[in-house]
Design a protein that fits this description.
The chain has about 350 residues and is mainly alpha-helical. The protein is built from ten helices and five strands; from the N terminus they run βαββββααααααααα. The protein has a three-stranded mixed sheet with strand order 1-4-5, with no helix packed on it. A two-stranded antiparallel sheet has the order 2-3.
Length: about 350
């Protein structure tokens, strides 16, 4: 599941149209003339026009695109196409694109039915019939159009007000696939899948999610148990031996003791998080049954939070253990390298 960050869109699905296309839809809905973006008194775009003035006489005028890449939007209109950015980095886009094509096909059928109902017994629809249907669907889909910051807390509240779903986990998202209206669209209305084909994909998605979480949990257990905790204990041993040696020769050892006292609770925290991660992973593996979604949900609810707690404890310990004892590159080293 792609969480919003580092150019990945958040889980609330919306569409970014850009000022120009939004103005076209608004003008049709409101039955008014289209604003002229090149006339200053009618400018409604925030960038201030279609020409970028760089204030350098030697450079020519630069045409400005009236759309925006807006990387935070799952669907962004970029001049001549919509870009779909919600697929995870290791996920094949084939299944999401198949579902999108089915949704578009279902929408075309719905619009066609509405146009036939609007024209009645006439041999062909008039322009007024077409505009009436277009206006209806512009208004119907207005809630999914959003031009702002998809990462903001305000958008979460606004999306809830608009009735848009905010799906926060992969197992929850998978359940939408077999919800009655979605399953009917995919298997009966459009017929791109049989019910068995759709259920098999649903099962595989849940199974792969749970297995990925288990693999990550077991990998982290190996790193913590075989590398990080031994490094912390080795550093504690070195501090204790240093403090004892200093005391033996009558030298003040409080710096070593203070560092040891700081390190000890951090080590205990990681030990506790490590044990909790082991227990959560073991319980998940022991309780695997026929309900793939329940298994995936348990991985999300219990194992994934245990992974996060172990990672937080390891991060805290990393700042306290001397570099020479730490078995992995530290964040500071990576940043300095960059």
């Amino acid at each position: 599941h792609r969480l919003g960050a580092q150019e990945a869109p958040p889980g609330i699905i919306s569409a970014f149209l850009g000022d120009q296309l939004t103005e076209v839809l608004d003008a049709i809905e409101e039955d008014r003339p289209l604003k002229n973006f090149s006339v200053p008194q009618f400018q409604s775009i925030k960038v201030g026009g279609t020409v970028l003035d760089v204030k350098v006489a030697a450079l020519p005028s630069i045409a400005r695109d009236l759309t925006d890449r807006n990387r935070t939007s799952p669907f962004a209109f970029t001049g001549n196409k919509f870009e779909f950015r919600a697929v995870g980095s290791k996920q094949s886009p084939s299944f999401p694109v198949t579902v999108l094509n089915c949704a578009v096909t279902a929408a075309v059928h719905e619009i066609t039915d509405a146009l036939r109902a609007q024209m009645g017994s006439k041999p062909r629809p008039s322009d007024e019939d077409k505009l009436a249907v277009i206006r209806r669907f512009i208004a119907l889909t207005k809630s999914v159009r959003f031009e702002g910051d998809n990462y903001s807390a305000e958008w979460v509240a606004e999306a809830a007000r608009r009735g848009l779903p905010n799906i926060k986990s992969a197992p929850e998202a998978f359940n939408y696939l077999i919800a009655d209206k979605h399953k009917q669209m995919l298997t009966e209305d459009i017929g791109i899948f049989s019910e068995g084909e759709l259920l098999s994909r649903y099962h595989i998605l849940n199974e792969r999610y749970a297995k990925d979480v288990v693999i990550e949990a077991e990998t982290l257990q190996t790193i913590v148990g075989q590398q990080i905790l031994p490094a912390a204990m080795e550093y504690r041993k070195a501090l204790a031996e240093s403090a004892a040696a200093l005391k033996a020769v009558g030298v003040e050892a409080s710096p070593e003791i203070d560092t040891l006292n700081q390190l000890t609770p951090l080590t205990k925290d990681l030990q506790a998080a490590f044990a909790a991660l082991q227990a959560a992973t073991r319980e998940l593996l022991e309780e695997e049954g026929d309900d793939a979604n329940a298994h995936a949900q348990a991985a999300h609810d219990h194992v994934a939070p245990a992974i996060a707690r172990a990672r937080d404890a390891a991060d805290a310990l990393e700042t306290a253990v001397a570099d020479k004892f730490w078995p992995l590159p530290k964040y500071t080293e990576l940043l300095l390298t960059i």
